[in-house]
Amino acid sequence: AMDGAPPPTSPSGLSAYVAVSQLLGLTLLATTGAWLGRYRGGVAWHSPLQFNAHPLCMVLGMVFLQGDALLVYRVFRHEAKRSTKVLHALLHGLALVIALVGIIAVFESHRTKGIPDMYSLHSWCGMAAFVLYLLQWLLGCGFFLFPGASFSLRGRYKPQHIFFGIALFILSITSCLLGITEMLLFKISDSYSHFVPEGILANTLGVLLVAFGLVVGYVLTREEWKRPPLAEEMALSMDFKTLTEGESPGG
Fold this sequence. Notes:
- The protein is mainly α.
- The chain has one domain (39-223): Up-down Bundle (Four Helix Bundle (Hemerythrin (Met), subunit A)), CATH 1.20.120.1770.
- Helix content is 74%, strand content 0%.
- The chain contains 7 helices and no strands.
- The chain starts with 13 loop residues before the first helix and ends in a 6-residue tail after the last helix.
- It is found in: Cytoplasmic vesicle, Secretory vesicle, Chromaffin granule membrane.
- Its cofactor is heme b.
- Pfam families: Cytochrom_B561 (PF03188).
- This is Transmembrane ascorbate-dependent reductase CYB561.
C-alpha cells in the first residue's frame, strides 16, 4: 500500500453478518447452559450429571468454534496469510479437543448407567462428524500449514478441503438437532407434546443452531466476501511454485 493510503476496509455488510453470527453463537451457548442448568440439573464430572457435559461440549466445539474457525478467512482479510492459517487450525484443534471431552463424557456416562452405545442415528451421525472432522483437520495441517506439499497438490486439494469443511459443519449441526430430539424423547416423552417449557427451550436451541449455521453459511458462500490475496502472498506463491514444481514464474 502507498504511504498515506486509507486502511483497507471490509466489504459492505460483512461485518454486520459476522456480528450477527457471533450474537447467535453466544445465545445458543447461553441457551444450552440454561437448558442443562434449569431442567437437567447442571453439569458435573464423575456424577450422574456427567452426561450433560456432552451436549454442552458438542455445541461449543462442533458448532460454535467450528463455525468461527470457518469465518477466520472472512474476518481477518488483511492480516498475514500464515497467521490466519495458524488461527484457523488452532480454532479447529480446540473444537476437536472440546468435542473429544464431550464424547468421553457420554461413553463414561453410558457405561456407568449400563446404557448401550452407538445404536441411534444421532450417535452414528455424531461419530461420523467427529472422525471426519479430525481427518479433515489432519489433512488440512499436512497440506497447508506444514511445508512439504507441492503447489499443484495444494491446488488440487483446496476445493475438496473447502467443500468438506462446509459439509462437516452442516453434519455437525444436524447431529446436534438429532441429539436434542433424542434427549427430549428420552427425558420428557410424556409431556413434550403439551408444549412444556423445557420442550420449548430445547426447540428454541434447535432454531438457534439452524440460524447460526445459515448465517455462517451465507458469509462463506458470498463470492465477493472471500479473502483477497495480498500482493506479497501472490509473489510468495509464485516462488513456492517455482521451487516445488520447477517452473518459472512466467510459465
